[in-house]
What we know:
The chain has about 260 residues and is mainly alpha-helical.
Amino acid sequence: xxxxxxxxxxxxxxxxxxxxxxxxxxxxxxxxxxxxxxxxxxxxxxxxxxxxxxxxxxxxxxxxxxxxxxxxxxxxxxxxxxxxxxxxxxxxxxxxxxxxxxxxxxxxxxxxxxxxxxxxxxxxxxxxxxxxxxxxxxxxxxxxxxxxxxxxxxxxxxxxxxxxxxxxxxxxxxxxxxxxxxxxxxxxxxxxxxxxxxxxxxxxxxxxxxxxxxxxxxxxxxxxxxxxxxxxxxxxxxxxxxxxxxxxxxxxxxxxxxxx
Length: 260
């Protein structure tokens, strides 16, 4: 005969099915959110990436503008040198000095032509980068609008379900503590390996919940007797009888109303 400190098989089955009902309710809440958290995260990453690209493009523009200023300064310096050399030519003593100054003037004129060519190329780069910047800003604005919409959707769902989810997680942890570790490990292993996370299911129409494989009448009688923990030979799920399942569902529905 079981003492007060011992837990009967029936009590273990009820505790496991209660835990399953709580965890399934948490799953439902998370399914309502669906892919939204991931969508929001992806959009945030995309927006951050676009902002980084805009910063880089703006930095590139600033560098190009600096390069243009440097080229313009070089042109002014070359013009000043040309003027200086031309003035010096008026005071030369021989053809060699005159030709030497002429070469310096020619070199500075080539420097001016090269600088003007570079300025033209740099201005073309500015135009191209401005086009890319405008396109990026348009796409960024569209993605930010989309992000705002998705974030609003997520915030609305979270405001409706977050409190309930947190309360249910606490209940799940509390129920876990009342079940022996061996059974919890088995429950979690089965839950992670089966569809919809259902590790404990009732017998429905002669088969385990969600399965089409018929359970022999003798096994159904053993399940209803609640004298040992029986698993479905096909899915590995822990089986409970319909009456126990109905009783625990009614009990847990009251709990779910309290935590909302």
